[in-house]
Each structure stands twice: as structure tokens, then as C-alpha cells.
């Protein structure tokens, strides 16, 4: 399969999600297309095939994806940095449910559970409940004691924990989430030690003896030369 | 099966393109010898945009970098892993050996930790010191000139420390410590654990005009596109090609056997081309195996003939034996002082800036051999898993409530980001004759080549060493007012000792010695049984030291390659 074909496959397979995104979120067709063709990240031909296979599978119904969208928005409501749609959190959840197949059933079962619960209490499916009603349900499954194993909690709590984990990781590994978190690396720069104000904050300082041996960044481009004893002379 | 044979005879056929194979390629081709390099995986160049993962943010991966296809994550540059489709290995009962393979030009050097330590004088003479295992037939003085040359050729940062068993070299200056590393330095010193700048083969300073200088993106496991870290392709094979060497690369070519003639001499190799599944033969006056310790042992054991009924070079019955990996133990801790920390670009090089070499004397301890401590932590790049159980550290503040939803999760995320530190011990195990790989008589891989079966048990030495690691970690973590993230592993869990193979330092399967009865190769890594076959990976290691093996693989491969050139000059091949 050549690259052009594989992109076609991705686009075709993602029409369902794409239409949903366009219809429900008002995200432009252009933006959807961009997001679907940008997965160029150094794959081997075998890995590309595997990714394409996952993209081609449909794991959740549009209704299920829509429910995730509501849930994820409650877990991380939009703020000035961004929202779960910018971060493509629901797409990540769908992809991971295919990439880690053991996620699929629990994720689906939780969606059934939350609709049953909503109908029982409020005579509506979850997405059609008032926000206050949605929160009333979440309040009962969203908390746990971190001193205990999550496996000892009811399935609904475990399920919400999984959805929260995927939402958090989806958001904070996205462009907007990384910016919000304040991670500033993965880009060419010069490391020249911990900023002085940070050292001061923790009452730390560099040993003179140690720091004298470290790289003088103004000489980083001078070609290294040594004397016979291994002393650097450039 | 169809077998095709090329009429060309190379001076040298090199099997594998990692550290040992790359060094042999460079030295031999630059001496004017014609060389074939046979690599089981595809061509790889970290500067090729199609293959490059360096500098990609997590969101370029649809799984945000999760380790579902590549074990160490989507961006790790190792094509392969612990399990490879169609290339199985088996275990004898109660063995749980892990075998990490990377099928690509440059092999595992594309993703390794770049920890580049010389073995010290004591590391070659352990039997003389503690009565266990065996001494090497060579000592530090024999290999020192080659370590010096490797330092200058490839580049390694570090500092002169004048420690007897941690020999100094020709170093580039190291980078300054990060914040959590300063916490570590202070805490380790309180317990009299020595700490010093680490020694990694990453160019903090220009080495030559073929390679760039580190720009601190922390991505060495992704292999550097400006060649500022050591990978065998970018630092040995490409420069050798550039200097006009006669090098033919055979990629996607899985070597099955070393072929031999009536006199029992090697005539070349047979390999299966993964693309057409046809077996080919390559002729060479000399065969250099550098396929990794276990793969080279497998090729030798599979190379049975009338002249070598027990496998090639195996008259001693030791091929595959004395297999040993480094010991490993890890602990992570939360540093409450580091909550809500200011963020800044803390990437640094792709590895620790400080570490602790072995600092004790085993005479006063209940186990043999030492370990070093590696340090990790800081404001790392978010990737899949970041934000999981975002506020479970609440428990360290006496709270019994975590989870929730809403914008408070954003605060929790920022509160705990960069507040952990990790310590890893990597130590020396004692090589055992009873730990070995052999050919599984009942299993072949998808190319029809018989596979390896592993037999491996740790001894009390390694288990007690792992306990010592955990006790040390506990003390250092306590010294920095930090809290361990999990319970200290006890006796039932071998004190957290890693599985054999898991540290990916497997060595010893074709061990070196002067007596052909108790060793496979001589001090020049030449088979005792067959003078035109050499093994230049970590197979010839008699013992492992508490040092990572790569720098010693490189130095020995250089030394052996010079020996090969000398023998060619004497017309011995």
C-alpha cells in the first residue's frame, strides 16, 4: 500500500467520526482533513499498515462518541488554554480502545451503565440530562481513596477512572495541554543549568568544583582537542 | 529451498551492524578491505525524515507515544522488541529470560542510554579478587589504547576523577546537573555514596565536521538527526562509506549459518533475504560475527558440519554458556518540596547528567560485585500515561480522597508535574556455566532457522545485591525527604531484581580465554577452532563489570579489527 492509498483509507474510515465532528462540533472540514493526514511520525511500513488498520476500524457508535464528548467535557471543562476537542481527546479514546483491545469492553459497558443510571434517576439518557443531574451521577463514581486499590471499587468507579485517565492524558499530551502544563522542551536549545531563581527557591547552589568541569556553552562549537593526558585544550 | 550464490568474494563478511559490527566496518573498510555488512533489519538513518522521530511532539502519534507497538514508546528507535512476530525464542522450565532485539541498521545503538563507561583494571581480574567466575586473558593496559581511540573517534562527555577502577578518558565537558539531580547529589553524599558527572557518548562540544553538537532535546533514544549521539550507523558506518570504503550493505538479510569448506575454514555466510524469502550465500575470506551475543551464538550453533559437528567454534561445548545480563533494581519517589514547581526547559541530554559509580568494597558485604546508580526525573515531555491517576499523590498529604472531575484536575496536574525522582541500580552478576542459550530442537522461526532456548537462574549474589540496592535507595530517598512510590520489594520478589535479559546487557556466550578447552575465542575475539571467524559483539565478555558493555564492545572490536588487518598483511587469510 503506498502512502497516498493509506491516507485515502484513513480518510474514508474516519468519515463517520469526521461527520460527527463537523455536525456536532462545527469543526470545519478543512481542519478535520488536516488532523487526519498529519500522522507522519517515523513509522516502518508494517507499523503504518497496523495504524491504518486501526483507523479503519470503528469501535464506538457516533452516539457513544458523543457521550464520551459530554463526559470528557465534564472532566476537563474548557478554559482559556483550550478544550478537549482542540486536544482531540475523544479521538484518542477511540484509538486506544482499538490499540489496547482490553479497554474496549469496559469502556462500552460503562457507557451502558451511565445511561441506565440516568434513565433510572432522571428518565433520560446521560447526554440529555441537565448538567446538575450529570454531576449528581458523577459525584458518586468520581472519587476513590488513593490508599486503596482501584480494583476493589465497583466497576462504575473503575470505568470513570479509566475515562478520566484517558481524558487527562489526551489533553495534556496535546498541543494546547502541553502549553498549559508548561512543558517547554523537545526543541533545540542550550541547557546551561537550573535557573538561578529556581536554585534560590530551594536553597540550592552548584558546587564550584563541579561546575568548573562542565561545558562552557560559549565554546561548544570549538572542535575538541586534548593533550596527551586527556586534558581538553579547546 | 532455492539458494543463490554471488560470485564475488569479499575480504570480510560482517554479520550485524550495531556497535561491534559498525566498528569492524569502519576499521576494516578504511584499511582498504572489501566488506559486506549483513543486517537483519532495514536501512536506517536518523536524519531520514521518513524514519525520524526526534523532536516529534506526542500528538503526532495517534496513540500519543504509547508503548503498544514499540515497547519503549512510539518514538523509541528500536525496530523490534522483546517479542518479534515469527522470530520466537523459548525457555526451559522456570527460566524467564527476556531477549530484546532491534532489527535495523545500527541495531540497538540507535536507542541505547549512551552510558559509555570503561571497564577498570579490577573488572578484568575478578576471579583473582573474589575467586568467582574467571579472569579475562587481557587486562586494562591491553585495552586502554583502544578506549582512548574510541573516546576520540566517537566522543564521550565526563570528568577526570582519578578513581582507580573508573578510569578516566578523553572527555568532552559534561552538562550541568538538573534540579532533581542536585537533590540526588546532596542526598547521596549524606549516605557517603559517591556522585559524579555521568559519562555519555553525546557531543556536548564539536568533535568533527561530520557530526553536529547536542541541542538538548532529551531525544537520544530517538537517535539524533544531526548525529550528536553515538549510533553505529551515523557515527561509524556512514563515515566509513563517506571515506570511500568498499562497503556493500545487505539489509533485511537474516543470517542462518557460517558456511565452511572441507578443511573446516569459514567460506562466508548463508542468509535469508526477508523480501523474497530466498536463501543466498555470500563469500568472504573472513567472517566477523557481530549479531549480538545471543544471535551470534545461535548462528555458530546452527553452523553444524562434518568438520564442526557440535556447531562452529564449539569444540569446548561453551558456545551459549556463561550468558549473563546486568542486575537491575529500581525505585521511584515523590519529593513533596517539588510540588507546584516553576517550569522551564529542563530536557538536557537524553540521559542523566550525574550518576554514582560503585563506591563500596565487597570485602565488607555479603555479596560479590558492585552496581552503579542511575538517576532520572524532572520536567519530562508529556506522553501517553501523563496525567493518569493525576492526584493519587494526595495520599502523601494524609488525604484519603482522589479522583474527581472539573478544573481542579488541571491544578492537580500542575501541582505534581515534575515532582518525582527515580533511582536505578545496574550491577554485575557472576557469569555461570549453567546459564546458557542453546538451540531448541523443536522450534524454528518463520525463516526456518532453529531458535534459541534459554536457561537462566540468578544466584544468591545477585539477589543480595538487589537487596542492597533497595536499602541504598531507601536511605537516599529518606535523605531527600522524599517518599517512595511503592513498597520496598521483599524476599518473595527477589528484592525487585529484574528478570535476566531485562537490562539488555546480555554478554558472555562466546567467552574469551587463552585455553581452548574453557573458552570459545582468544584475546583477539578469534575462534580457537576456526582462525578466520571472529566474534566482536559482547559474546566474548568473560565478565560484565557494573558498567554498560558498549564502550568495551567498541574498544575490543577495534582491537580485533586491527588484528584482522595485520593477519591480512601477513597473508594469513
Short description:
The complex is a heterodimer of chains A (234) and B (573). Chain A is mainly alpha-helical and 234 residues long. Chain A has helices spanning 3-13, 15-25, 29-36, 45-56, 62-75, 89-99, 104-122, 131-141, 155-172, 175-181, 196-201, 208-212; one strand spanning 143-144.
Greatest contact between two chains: A-B, 85 and 97 residues
Measure the end-to-end span of chain B. Answer: 31 Å
Helix content of chain B: 10-25%
Mean pLDDT of chain A: 88
Examine the secondary-structure arrangement and name the CATH architecture of the domain at 1-56 and 66-157 and 199-325 and 433-458 and 506-573 in chain B: 3-Layer(bba) Sandwich
Coarse morphology of chain B: globular
Q: How many helices of chain B does DSSP assign?
A: 9
Note the beta-strand portion of chain B: 15-25%
Number of strands of chain A: 1
**Unreliable residue runs of chain A:** 1-26, 32-36
Which structural class should the secondary elements of chain B be placed in? alpha/beta
Oligomerization: heterodimer
Quickly name the level 1 CATH class of the domain at 1-56 and 66-157 and 199-325 and 433-458 and 506-573 in chain B: Alpha Beta
Would you give an account of this structure?
The complex is a heterodimer of chains A (234) and B (573). By secondary structure, chain A is mostly helical. Chain A folds into two domains: 1-57, no CATH class; 59-189, no CATH class. Chain A is 57% helix and 1% strand. The longest helix of chain A is centred in the middle third of the chain and has 19 residues, at 104-122. The relative contact order of chain A is 0.09. Chain B is 20% helix and 18% strand. Chain B has 573 residues and is of the alpha/beta class. Chain B has a domain at 1-56 and 66-157 and 199-325 and 433-458 and 506-573: 3-Layer(bba) Sandwich (FAD/NAD(P)-binding domain). In chain B, the strands form four sheets. In chain B, strands 1, 2, 7, 8, 9, 10 and 19 form a seven-stranded mixed sheet that branches. The relative contact order of chain B is 0.19. The chains are: A mainly alpha (234), B alpha/beta (573). At the A-B interface, helix 4, helix 6, strand 1, helix 9 and helix 10 of A face helix 4, strand 14 and helix 7 of B.
